[in-house]
Amino acid sequence: VQNKYIMLTINLFEQETKDYNLIDCFEAFLPIAIKELGLTRLPKIHIKKDVNMIHVASFGGYDDIDKKITLVINNRQPADIIRTLAHELVHFKQGENNELKPGDWKDGSDPENEANAEAGVLMRKLAHDYPGILSAKPVQLP
Questions:
Q1: Is pTM beyond 0.85 here?
Q2: d(Cα 72, Cα 61) in Å, to the nearest integer?
Q3: What are the distances in angstroms from CA 36 to CA 86, 121, 138?
């Protein structure tokens, strides 16, 4: 009986051996986000190397006027980048539904709290379907 449990444990750890890179993470995550958020389209997604290259010291943002998301990727775990994308996609959905007002980006606002909560749900779905993504190596750009 004991050997049966050892084999089960080994099979769990051997189940996923893929090394995910950031592109793999996007490819795994975006169909989940589209389905769960009910999106009919995606915004433009701008990738930036460093935090100091965007107007606010943040790892990401959504511009409701230009309908674009900005993500900072250097020295970050892919799962963290994807979590930022999840958060900003919720803001995109809120914008598409005309639910955003000036100042809604502030901590504690209803749209910000919803984006945090929904991003967590999306990440749990991603981690369930692709557990190896959580251990993907950080993005290292020159």
A1: no
A2: 9
A3: 11, 9, 26
